[in-house]
Structure formats: structure tokens, C-alpha cells
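Lab notebook: predicted structure, single chain.

Context: the supervisor wants predicted structures on file for every construct in the current expression panel, including those that have not yet been purified. This is the next one on the list. No modifications to the sequence; it matches the entry in the shared construct table.
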Amino acid sequence: MAPKQRSRPEENSTFLPRSRSSSPSRTCLRQSPKPKKKKLLRKKPALTQDDVQAQIAARIAQLTAPPAATSAAPSPKVKSNAVLNSTKIARLTTKIARNELEVARLEREYADAKAALEHEEKIQAATRLSMQLKERCDLLVKKVEKGEMTEAEVTKERDAIVAEMVPVSQVLTKLAKIPRVVAAVPAVQEFARMSLKEELD
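Prediction complete. Output recorded below exactly as produced.
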């Protein structure tokens, strides 16, 4: 039995070949954009001087107006923070006051110590000078006893010792009234003894 042969489309009258249209579809056509109309800018009316001043005054009033008060009550957390901050500020203020008192006390102690140090330096300088003058006096007495110096030389040396003794005597007069100084320095003891003898005589 021979196989059946398929009929070709060309032979079958019901199948017609597709034909492409030579004219493009309307959807494929690009629509040419319509030119946009330029909007005509309307000129704003010119502001007068009064209008400008009014706008400035309104803006200033807007900026300087106080903010509206909030009627809402603060939360408990805000209240507790405020209490803590006020307590901390009070504690710091008290601490600052105590520190200021301590600083003032230290400044007074420093001033007293500085004055005492200057006084001690004056005492030591006057003591050294008085001891040197005492040694010169003793040496002068020995030379006079041995006849090693003329009368003019003795007078000159004596006047020099007296001239140097004047500023020292002013210091020693004050020092002679201090018991611890008198007991510690032999030169001051001698000067105090001589001063007392002159007063008694």
C-alpha cells in the first residue's frame, strides 16, 4: 500500500501565501512633535518703596517674635534630671567656695613664710657682719696694746668700724630683744650686754 503524499500549500487552494504589506503600519510611524509654545513671562508689577518697607517690617516682626509657650508640663524624667543638675551645681558651688578659702589660707601662709625668710636672712647678714666687726675690734685692741699702730691709724680704723657698725646696730637693737637670737649668737649677746651697760651707766 503506497503512502499518502502530503499536499503542498501551493496545491491546496485553501492555503494562500502570506504577503507583507508594503505600507508601514500606523503604529510604526513617528509622530512629529508639535512645537511648544513659549510661555510669555508676565512682568511683575514693580514694588514701591512702601511695599518694600512693609515686607521688611513683616519679616523682622516674624523673626523677632518670641516662640509660643508650650503648655505641656515637663515629664517626670525631665524633672528628675533638673533636680539632679541643681543638686550637682549646688555641690560644686560649695566645693568651689571651700577651695577659695583654702587658696586664701595658703596665700596667707606663703606671705608669712616669705616674711619670716626675709627676716632670717636679715638676721644672718647682720650677725655675720657684727662678728666680723667684733673680730676687727679685737684685732685693733691687740695692735694698740703692742704698739704696732700709730694714733692716726687707730683713729682711722676706729672711725671705719663705727661707720660700718651704725646700720648693723639698728638691726641688732631689734634682734637683742629676741631671746632665741640672743642665746644663739655670741656677737648679739655682746652687743646686748654693751647696750644694757650703757643704759645702766
